[in-house]
Amino acid sequence: MNRGPSYFSLTAMVLGFAFLYLPIVLLIIFSFNESRLVTVWAGFSTKWYVELFRNEQLLQAAWVTLRVAVTSATLATVLGTMAAMALTRQRRFFGRTLFSGMIYAPLVMPEVILGLSMLLLFVAMDQARGFWTIMIAHTTFTMCYVAVVVQSRLAGFDRSLEEAAMDLGCPPLRTFFSITLPQIMPGVIAGWMLAFTLSLDDLVIASFTTGPGATTLPMKIYSQVRLGVTPEINAVCTILIGIVTLGVIAVSITSKRQRLQQERDERMAMEQ
After folding, report:
1. What is the DSSP string of 26-85?
2. Where residue 1 falls among pLDDT bands split at 50, 70, 90?
3. Residue-averaged pLDDT of the chain
4. Which CATH architecture has domain 55-271?
């Protein structure tokens, strides 16, 4: 007989969620505070959002961060998908162990080591640090996460669909774009979202690889928080939370619709 969750389990769950999300809720609430003191509530106001959009330094940092995140996430998705295809489809090839180890290494390697190694590489290449160096570093850092997500999607992929398409004369490249890619698209989208979020949130690696005129938003927030939290920081963090939340909801809805459509197509094929 199922008696439902115990009071201890329910209490532990409530305390766990409160520990994780209560600070975020407080940050959102105090972003609408009338007072400049972030710990004293003085009434509801949206003036700090107005002040935020007048702060050119924060807007410039946000624009740099957004460009780096979109560019690096896109490149990481392409490279990570190719790496996942190689690891899944090519079971044996020369250097496979080394290749897979290099793919998985950034998952467990401290970010400070990654940032320092990228800095030494750019210094050795006499490369001026700026937007492109941050983008390359973030692509290297996030590609492994995309590879893991897409590889898990490919592990359960039915290859008979590809074989049937190629038996009917479809070239391998067209088979990938017409058959394989639509089937693994939820994993690819999830990998892109993960890479985008990691790049958007990164502070350590960007600190090592940045240069003049390429200050990211996390770096700007960190430098201002060291002097004291301001309501503008609460406002920009609230906007970031909203963007990430909407992105996660959109991806979840899209993945659910694709899964339902796939189940519907399979059901119709079985009935025929």
Report:
1. HHHHHTTBSSSSTTS---B--HHHHHHTT-HHHHHHHHHHHHHHHHHHHHHHHHHHHHHH
2. very low
3. 84
4. Orthogonal Bundle (1.10)
